[in-house]
Amino acid sequence: LTSVNNYYDCVYFIKYILNSFLQLLVAVIMPFFRKTDTEVLRDSRRVLRHAECDLKRDRRHLAREEHLLQEQIKQAAACKDQALLAVLCKQLVKLREQNARSCQLSAKLSGMNSDTRLIVSNANVAGSMKTAAKTMQKVNDRLRPLKLAKSMQKFDATAAKMEMTEEMISDTLDNVLAESDDESQEALILDQVLDELGIETAAKLPAVYNDRKAACTSTVKRDQQRSEFGKLQK
Question: Containing domain of residue 181, as a range?
Answer without folding.
Answer: 156-198
